[in-house]
Amino acid sequence: MYISTRGGNDSFSAAAAIKTGMAPDGGLLVPEVVPCLEKTFLDKLVGLDYHQRAAEILKLFLDDYSASEIESCLKAAYNSKKFDHAAIAPVVSLSEGVSVLELWHGPTSAFKDMALQLLPQLLSLALKKTGETDQIAILVATSGDTGKAALEGFRDVDQTQIVVFYPYLGVSKIQELQMVTQEGKNVTVAAVKGNFDDTQTGVKTIFNDLQYGKELERHGVKLSSANSINWGRLLPQIVYYFSAYADMVKTGRIRQGQALNFVVPTGNFGNILAGYYAKLMGLPVHKLICAANNNNVLTEFLRTGVYNRERDFYKTLSPSMDILISSNLERLLYLVTGDSTKVSCWMRELSGKGQYQVDAECLAAIQQSFWSDWVSDDITLKTIQRVFKQYNYVMDPHTAVAWKAYENYQEETGDTTQTVVVSTASPFKFSDSVLDAVGGQASKEKNEFDVLRELAALTDWAIPAPLANLENKKIRHTTVGNKEDMPNLVKQAVI
Ligand SMILES: *Cc1c(COP(=O)(O)O)cnc(C)c1O
């Protein structure tokens, strides 16, 4: 069963947890017990493919889904039509001690696909299991990556509708094209005049308008969200930590039982938290290295125990990590302390005073597993350039942040544990910065597809097909509205 980090009395089946998304007391849902694996489990994984590995992990957390249901969800989520690599999440070794786990072979070329391909499948079954007869309308406000990944994941999924809002002129040209060309019977995309905060506030206002919600329900529609606090988004991410470990054993880079470090470019703390769950389950993980950009609230927290969101917000070259409130950290605090009273208190301080400080015992427990550093834009570009020169490997800015944070870690600690850097986006998704870093020039006037082609020519890497194909896709969504229009746009889309 799943329970709240804030201690509410309700408990939820896996299906109910995935359908609900958030606990009624405002907390996040976590499994009551974390399954602990025997050593033979890891032996078994080595010989399996990604689907089979995923099935082994998922069944531990989804008591109320049958083996064949899990199998059909996995088939629909991770297949050769959607992923351009047979291994789904391949591990590439760059040097003696460092390998890269590539999580960007899915339909939108970023790691959000790993979760957002599977979540809609799990949710659609959850609706059947909980006897839900209403349509579920997923509302998303996006600053770029999540919107497209959610659209791809939910397109044509039974009993769901998806509505995505993005800030007009506030996302990259490629990101905009990815969204406005979206196909599918149940999808709506609209631009909102304003910045991302306006868009997000618009969505929150809709969620909080009880009367509006009741009106939709009279038409058989319930609202839900697909953001990363849903357990159904975290769970698929646990799988690739195990899979990477099994691959490292399979290729002889580590012995079974030998520990690994993982370095994770971090924003909302979802990805790295999945790694921590893997560790709690018994995966031999030495350190989880949390890499941040100039928005370094997490680095400060992991070093001092003080979380302070009252600080300047920077727009960086790694925009998916431009976050000041990392929602999933609440789950870590609960896992480490087991104390929902403390967690509730800290979260109240965060929303009231903008900061909180954990006690020394909690900080020490966190620091046993986590280490953190942050990297500036300037150093990020230099890292992309250096890694390309040295290894002929092209990193996107988020991955480069992780690479550099690891170098800093090694310098500070001298730790020689084998390490896996988690790569969260294809370099072509952030082609302007990457082209500049590897010796080209991405001026503002240049057509975005020319930038992709130039990057491909310079690096000898192939442009991912879904990005290359955008050039010939029909524009299907042209709505541009004001924030005030959002409730009506949703109604038109889902009723
Ligand atoms: C979302 C995202 C991240 C941050 O992941 P979290 O789970 O939010 O910590 C990092 N890199 C890329 C490319 C992303 O899209």
Oligomer: single chain
Q: Count the strands?
A: 15
Bound molecule kinds, no repeats: pyridoxal-5'-phosphate
Number of helices: 22
Helix proportion range = 40-55%
Please identify the structural class as seen in this structure: alpha/beta
Write down the CATH topology of the domain at 91-109 and 232-467: Rossmann fold
Report on the structure:
By secondary structure, this protein is of the alpha/beta class. The protein has a domain of 255 residues: Rossmann fold, CATH 3.40.50. 46% of the residues lie in helices and 15% in strands. The strands form four sheets. Strands 3-4-14-9-10-13 form a six-stranded mixed beta sheet, sandwiched between helices. Strands 8-5-6-7-15 form a five-stranded parallel beta sheet, sandwiched between helices. Helix 7 links the parallel strand 5 and strand 6. It binds pyridoxal-5'-phosphate. Pyridoxal-5'-phosphate binds next to helix 12.
